[in-house]
Records
---
Amino acid sequence: MKVLYFAWVRQRIGLGHEMVNPPDGVATVAALVEWLRARGPGYAEAFRDTRAIRCAVNQEYVEPDHPVAVGDEVAFFPPVTGG
Amino acid sequence: MAVRVQEQDFDLGAELAALTAGNHGVGGLGVFVGLVRDVAGAASVAGMTLEHYPGMTERQLETIEAEARSRWPLEATLIVHRVGRLEPGDNIVLVACASAHRQAALDATAFLIDWLKTKAPFWKLEETPDGANWVDARESDDAAAARWSR
């Protein structure tokens, strides 16, 4: 599974993207966040307030209960500020 | 019908001329150009860096553009958004809609920029005297986008 981070999520984690291999029980975005949060202090800081983070799976916006699976592209980022 | 994300500046006159070239059914052109300001609240801004999500950004812009074309009778549309480091006065974004009549052109242009601001994955990092700050999303932008919901 490819995970991407943008803006301050990327800065706090210290990576723009990475390949991860979560255990089988990690089947939703919310579960993936919980699993990522335990990977280190940068992750814990980035995911401290999940209300401040948006998620996309395969480049479409999704809610925390959306499923994730092997081969998905999952992105985490703050609310957008373009234009 | 065209969506572009690019580092380089755009030439407003050339972009608009190309948009309507050869189409004499166009009676009106709605245009919005977003520029970098030199202030953010009380702080001065020396520049900003625009980050985006390559791939998803283009998909979102194409989805937004298709939505506009389903709502209004448009002859042509254009969205150009810059990324990378920009300075006060620089162009950030161009949205243009061509239609037979002004109301559709103006409304579709407002719709596109309002939706772009809340849906397209871009983020602004502003340079202020206190350091670099990620711009927070604004509730007023959500409200502006919500007025087009139906």
---
Amino acid sequence: MTEVLEQLGYQVDFPENQTCCGQPAFNSGYRAEARTVARHFLKTFEKSECIVVPSGSCTGMITHHFAELFHKEPETLARVHSLEQRVWEFSTFLTQVAGVEDVGARLERVVTFHDGCHALRELGVKDAPRKLLARVRGLELREMTPAEECCGFGGTFAVKFSELSGAMARTKIEAIERTGAATVVSVDPSCLMQIQGALARAGSGVGTMHLAEVLASR
Amino acid sequence: MSRDHILHRVRTALGRNAGQGVADPPPARIRVPQVAMEARVASLIERVRALAGEALESADPRAFVANAIEGKTAVASNSAYLAERGISSLAGVRSGITDREELRAVCATADIGITSADYALADTGTLVMLSTPQEARMISLLPPAHIAIVPRERILTGLDELFSLIPNPANLSSSMVLITGPSRTADIEQILVRGVHGPGQITVVVA
Amino acid sequence: MTGEFDRKVHDTLVDAKLQLAVYTATARLKEKRIETVSSEALPDYQELRTQANAIKKHAIDNLDHYLEEFERNVVARGGKVVYCKDGSEVSDFVLGLARERAAHLIVKSKSMTTEEVDLNERLEHHGLESVETDLGEYILQLAHERPYHIVAPALHMTRYQVADLFERCLDVPQETVIEKQTALARTVLRQKFLAADIGISGANFLVADSGAVVIIENEGNARLTTTAPKIHIAVAGIEKVIPRAQDLATFLKLLARSATGQLLSVYTSFLAGPRRAGEIDGPDEFYVVLLDNGRTRLLPDKAKRQSLYCIRCGACLNTCPVYRKIGGHSFPWVYSGPIGAILTPQFMGVQHSPALPFASSLCGACGEVCPVKIDIPKILLELRSEVKKAETREKQNRLERLGFQGFAWLMTHPRIFEMVGRIGRSIGWPKSRRGPLGAWLSERELPPLPARSFREMWRRR
């Protein structure tokens, strides 16, 4: 992601104090613990002009759920609202803030794109990654059917309900295999981890790549 | 008394007092489109057919019905319109029944029930039937086939127009039924079967 | 409860035939819904959802007012309203009326509310015959099973199971052709309709300005239930009230499309009171039973009150990737799918079904398809927080809480976080198959650990 952004002329900073957005705790019902982590995030990125996130679910946590965590603290809430304006999911940043679709990438591959649920439904990310992929030289994108179905990760859901999560993953990889693609691309590392794990278990030769990796390919 | 107990619990939960008024509800959303009569007729027919019903225009509904009931037993409602068009007086058609038990017995054995309709809705292929001295409920319900003769002027564009004309159907009758196609179920293995309890065959004749 | 839930989920996941049945049936319903609410088919779809949500919000926020208006109008039309706190009050009322009228046979059309309170069981215990008339519900009644799906109750049964059931219960020869099975049920049930003393129905909507109940169906059994017997009793939860008949122009456009992809269900009945002078048929007596059964416990919570907006279309079930795998019988109560996951803990208390709010990947598809815009994912997250608070109070699941406290500590100590990462990468994944690692590995491979962290690469630039 850094490569792609620098290629486009941006100065990239990586605040080293960053750790996590707190989503695992929030999704598991531990709001106090999530608040602690969120506070750290706020502090770490207080001075950052523009924050780009290579994850739909993390972006969603920050822009949609931080406010819920601090609804009883007006001062922190104000800082959260300021933060919300400055946080961007990677593909959205490229198409809407940088205003680009062609980043000069080349990758000879047949791929399919997995819409992570948070990116899709919380952030409305659907067209941006596809516009970017369309400009990658040598790349062919095939859509899977059914589309827009959950991969089954869901955070701690994947281990709390592992058999169910596995069943959902298998349905997803069946759809992937039907496309004949060599690689699954997504903007969410957690989806990719789930899908890659299921593909490997099934002995499939299909691989996974984050959108940033594709766009950095030359 | 459960009534007072429940209402009290509701009010407490909502932070409201007994007898407290309410702000206006969001305005009812009624948008009546302008659609020419010919287009309405065509749409009604197309929609009924899409539901595996029979639908047609006829200048001579009496002849159509006479043909349809050939060799079958039929019961017709007391609709003035059906009487005007000579349908209720056709040979083989029982009509003029006003006793509930008698009507039920006749409907339970009849092959075909014949009615008019108060309105029809063009966009969904729907018949609108109010229970009145002229139209009993069982006629469009018990027999396995239902024929409705609908004067074209009664074809409305859709639900919005219906509720615009009749904002409160309870003022007109104890029963208003919207009938959209033949009775159906897919309860066993999702396989579609028609004519479960209501009529499996429906015919809309636009006159 | 968790153990039982996990067991039921497992049993469904390993049943290949059942998996196929549930998945394909819901796929069909899901596809049909998408067709009929597309921007070509229903350009106003999003506006209608917004309107439906606004009407429900207004009605629920002013529920007492609209219940009283509804009651006044029912009475004005010659009907009666009976408020019932719970299932025993409902059955007391029905039994009392049946006794007074020397009634023995009841026909019933589909009502989830009556399933909530096991009405049939209560009535049968007191010697009344109460027959379900919706084909799917009739089959389930014979089989003594619960509905599998709000709209398609016998989703899980095959024609062969139905054939066996009919052979056993109706004393007829084996018949596996579905049309013939349906015709048989039709004949049997017709006798019941025509002989019944009382018809009990549900109600999709209670219309305050008309004193009317609205019943939506495809078979015609609800029409027969509410037309043939001399007495009609409609049983509905108090939350079913809408302010005006005109609001149906909004709700009817959404309900059938969301449920099955039909433009309108075959029959929509709008019933206000017993038959009037001059009307030839219809019941002589009309009662509406308004049931609380815990709804007033949900009302105070402003954030979760929207759970009561549900119009029982089933769209959330058809779209939920979890429901489509675990089916309706995995759920502990009569409501299944995403709506069941939020209603059950609220009606029964979070301790009754603590696993339920967690049995979701939070994909958000349910909230996206709900015609009345219930924010189901948000409510699931709230319920998760409530479960954990209850566990803290009860001193349960301490290890997990400790784990997350550790997580929060680690994430606020970046140097240590980094060190833990470095150590982890050098020793590799533990060999132990216990805990979350074991759970992960039961279904998929672990991701390869990177040689260097991003931090390390960043510093080397």
